[in-house]
Amino acid sequence: MHRQRCVGWIVAAAGILIGCYRPPDQGTLVRGFFAHRSAFERLLDLAAADRGYRRISRGRIPPIGMSAERFMQYTELFREAGIGNGLTRFAGYPRAVFLIVSSEVPIGGKGRSIGYAYSPEPLAPLADSVRMPALPFEIHRGGGHRATFRRLDGGWYLYCDADW
């Protein structure tokens, strides 16, 4: 009886997770980029001036050494551009800036993020469509990494990045 109850709770929790999971829609992201292009360009200018910061979150606390006024500039632009999780620079892409729309740690995974990237150098692998995860979990054997990019305009891309 206890085992059946536990299985029931697990199935219910999985159903809730799957039902509530809404990854960003690729078409919406593309339209959002072009509708708010000036905010993206201003974020890129700020990031270039603040090269010493690897991560700038959309939270309430600025990174160590950043003024509250400067951080407020970022948070206002994040809001305008629809950036839900801030800015980061991934080690594997030393000249790129990533603007994270959505990030999560899926069930059974290390993490994934979806958003926009800017790089003065081409990013690869390129695809006509970025694979947006349909479920809040992925099953893989071993560990790995997958990133895909879709060119938007100039050095701007949509991206999906996953580690497992």
What does this structure look like?
This protein is 34% helix and 23% strand. It is an alpha+beta fold and 164 residues long. The chain has one domain. Strand 2 and strand 3 form a beta hairpin. Helix 3 packs antiparallel against helix 4.
Q: What is the global morphology?
A: globular
Q: Oligomeric status of the shown chains?
A: single chain
Which spans of ≥5 residues are poorly predicted at pLDDT below 50?
10-21
Tell me the helix content: 25-40%
How confident is the prediction overall: mean pLDDT? 83
Order of helices and strands: HHHEHEEEEE
Order of neighbouring strands in the sheet with most strands: 1-2-3-4-6-5
Class by SSE composition: alpha+beta
* Beta-strand residue percentage: 15-25%
- What is the end-to-end distance? 35 Å
The radius of gyration over CA amounts to 18 Å
Largest sheet: 6 strands, antiparallel
Work out the number of β strands.
Answer: 6
Topology:
Elements (H helix, E strand, L loop, with lengths): L1 H19 L5 H10 L1 H13 L5 E2 L11 H14 L5 E2 L8 E8 L6 E8 L26 E9 L2 E8 L1
Antiparallel strand pairs: 1-2, 2-3, 3-4, 4-6, 5-6
Helix pairs in contact: 3-4
Keywords:
single chain, six-stranded antiparallel beta sheet, 164 residues, alpha+beta
Short description:
The protein is of the alpha+beta class and 164 residues long. The protein is built from 4 helices and 6 strands, in the order αααβαβββββ. Helices cover 34% and strands 23% of the residues.
